[in-house]
């Protein structure tokens, strides 16, 4: 049955049908990616809901990144390097009743000039830290993971851009041998610091 | 080409009901929601293989060897104080331990990278003080042997010392389904 038949049978005007579809689709499994601003921190996050993979991408201030790594007792060189990146807290969750997997190596960020860039992986960070004599291997989002039913995880994702930079993010996951890709437009790196509030 | 005609009102009603049922049955809609955000599912592991053995020290430098727990169901929780879901699940882990921890169930919380002084200070900040052993894996060698990629990750080990279940991400350990799994493992020969 097509939409025309539905409208004819119900006497529904197309504009109303479109409005109903727009309202109902997010509730029935079609993804929606929305930016939210935390009233507590003033930082933005982007959250996808309704997909097999829930995806949340949260701005992190450079000072917070410094604090996280400094309080772990990591050397200044490690702290300086990580905090020179644009860092996002990334939270992933399998919302389905079947396993799914992701690979950060498949993800890309796209700068306003249209260039697609790969994202620095946890393995690359850990290898660099190892060369510096540091055995720390936590905090970054794992390179790849298979999430069984109910599994979820989180970690930092590092983008080689300056504070406040804008980009689009493409992320993907694999379920039942099928790759799903989503794109978030107009993602922004956290500023150097939040503007002072009155 | 055959022209498709519009169905009558009865067919339309059936069609709409069927469409709604399909949507309700889709995985993203039927996935169980959990108000705590932690979830409770554990994934059965197959084939059952021996859990990597270890000897680790607790805050008082007392040594714990996994093989000493043979005959008990053991929940191993890899965690760190800076990991938000690790902090969130800690009270439920303590509640589970209080409920089931005895001669046939044990909890071992294996801390990653941190030192005992720091963790001791952290446990003092919690509303519920953990009474299960907190062990230290300062170089993350044990978590590496268990293939842990992110924190927290938990394993249920059966009475024969085999990896039976895994949970990646925080869990509501106090959930009745988790208790049921443990009781089932305890009932095994």
In terms of DSSP E residues, the strand content of chain B is: 15-25%
**Using only CA atoms, what is the Rg of chain B?**
22 Å
Structural class designation of chain B? alpha+beta
What summary fits the major beta sheet of chain B?
Answer: 8 strands, mixed
Largest interface, with Cβ-Cβ < 8 Å? A-B, 38 and 37 residues
Please tell me the overall pLDDT of chain B. Answer: 85
Rg for CA atoms of chain A: 20 Å
Oligomer: heterodimer
The SSE string of chain B, one letter per element, is HHEEEEHEHEHEEH
Report the count of strand segments of chain B.
Answer: 8
Overall spatial form of chain A: globular
N/C terminus separation of chain B: 67 Å
Cα end-to-end separation of chain A: 57 Å
Strand content of chain A: 35-45%
**Uncertain stretches of chain B:** 1-7, 15-35
Fraction of residues in H or I helices of chain B: 25-40%
Structural class of chain A: alpha+beta
Quick structural summary:
The complex is a heterodimer of chains A (198) and B (189). With 198 residues, chain A is of the alpha+beta class. Chain A has five helices and eleven strands; from the N terminus they run ααβββααββββαββββ.
Layout of helices and strands:
The complex is a heterodimer of chains A (198) and B (189).
Chain A: H1 3-10, H2 14-24, E1 32-37, E2 44-49, E3 53-59, H3 62-71, H4 76-83, E4 86-94, E5 100-103, E6 108-110, E7 116-118, H5 122-131, E8 144-147, E9 152-159, E10 166-175, E11 178-188
Antiparallel strand pairs in A: 1-2, 2-3, 3-4, 4-9, 5-8, 6-7, 6-10, 10-11
Helix pairs in contact in A: 3-4
Chain B: H1 9-25, H2 27-30, E1 43-44, E2 55-58, E3 63-65, E4 73-79, H3 84-100, E5 105-112, H4 116-125, E6 134-137, H5 141-145, E7 153-157, E8 163-168, H6 176-187
Parallel strand pairs in B: 4-5, 5-6
Antiparallel strand pairs in B: 1-8, 2-3, 2-6, 4-7, 7-8
């Amino acid at each position: 049955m097509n939409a025309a038949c539905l409208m004819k049978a119900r006497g529904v005007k197309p504009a109303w049908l479109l409005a109903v579809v727009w309202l109902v689709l997010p509730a029935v499994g079609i993804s929606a990616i929305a930016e939210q601003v935390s009233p507590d921190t003033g930082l933005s996050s982007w959250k996808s809901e309704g997909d097999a993979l829930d995806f949340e991408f949260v701005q992190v201030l450079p000072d917070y990144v410094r604090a996280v790594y400094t309080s772990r007792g990591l050397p200044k060189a490690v702290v300086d390097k990580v905090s020179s990146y644009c860092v996002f807290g990334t939270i992933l969750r399998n919302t389905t009743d079947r396993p799914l997997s992701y690979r950060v190596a498949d993800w890309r960020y796209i700068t306003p000039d249209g260039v697609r860039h790969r994202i620095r992986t946890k393995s690359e960070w850990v290898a660099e830290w190892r060369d510096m004599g540091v055995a720390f291997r936590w905090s970054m989002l794992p390179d790849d993971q298979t999430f069984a039913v109910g599994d979820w995880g989180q970690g930092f994702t590092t983008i080689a851009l300056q504070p406040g930079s804008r980009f689009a993010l493409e992320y993907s996951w694999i379920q039942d041998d099928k790759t799903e890709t989503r794109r978030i437009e107009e993602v922004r790196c956290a500023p150097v610091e939040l503007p002072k509030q009155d | 080409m055959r022209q498709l005609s519009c169905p009558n009102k009865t067919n339309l009603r059936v069609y709409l009901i069927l469409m709604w049922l399909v949507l309700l049955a889709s995985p993203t809609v039927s996935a169980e929601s959990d108000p705590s955000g932690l979830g409770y599912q554990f994934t059965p592991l197959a084939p059952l293989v021996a859990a990597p053995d270890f000897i680790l020290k607790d805050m008082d430098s007392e040594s714990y060897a996994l093989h000493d727990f043979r005959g008990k169901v053991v929940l191993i929780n890899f965690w760190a104080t800076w990991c938000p879901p690790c902090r969130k699940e800690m009270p439920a882990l303590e509640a589970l331990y209080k409920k089931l921890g005895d001669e046939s169930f044990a909890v071992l919380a294996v801390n990653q990278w941190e030192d005992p002084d720091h963790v001791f200070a952290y446990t003092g900040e919690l509303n519920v003080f953990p009474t299960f052993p907190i062990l230290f894996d300062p170089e993350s060698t044990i978590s590496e042997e268990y293939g842990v990629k992110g924190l927290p990750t938990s394993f249920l080990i059966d009475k024969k010392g085999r990896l039976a279940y895994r949970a990646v991400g925080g869990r509501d350990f106090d959930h009745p389904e988790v208790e049921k799994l443990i009781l089932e493992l305890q009932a095994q020969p």
